[in-house]
Amino acid sequence: MFKPLRQFARALRAPSVQEREMAYLNESNDAIELEYRMRQVDRGMFRKGL
């Protein structure tokens, strides 16, 4: 009964900071770019609003 409602609510939910960071890191093409992106995340690129 509540499964469709839960699925609908999950679809409307905005991604968390951790999910956005992981998606950003997963877009890297090689190890050098991954390291660069990891440094950006460590510096707080996604956490400035918190």
Tertiary shape: elongated
- Could you give a short account of the major beta sheet? none
Considering DSSP H and I runs of 4 or more, what fraction of the residues is helical? 55-70%
Radius of gyration: 15 Å
**Strand content bin:** under 5%
Structural class: mainly alpha
Counting DSSP H or I runs of 4 or more residues, the number of helices is 3
Low-confidence runs (pLDDT<50, min 5 residues)?
Answer: none
Order of helices and strands: HHH
Number of strands: 0
Instruction: Report how far apart the termini are.
Output: 36 Å
Query: What's the number of structural domains?
Result: 1
Determine the mean pLDDT: 89
Structure, explained:
It holds the Pfam family DUF3563. This is DUF3563 domain-containing protein. It is a single chain. The chain has 50 residues and is mainly alpha-helical. It has one domain. It is 64% helix and 0% strand. The chain has 3 helices and no strands. It has helices at 3-12, 17-26, 31-42. Helix 2 runs antiparallel to helix 3. The mean pLDDT is 89.
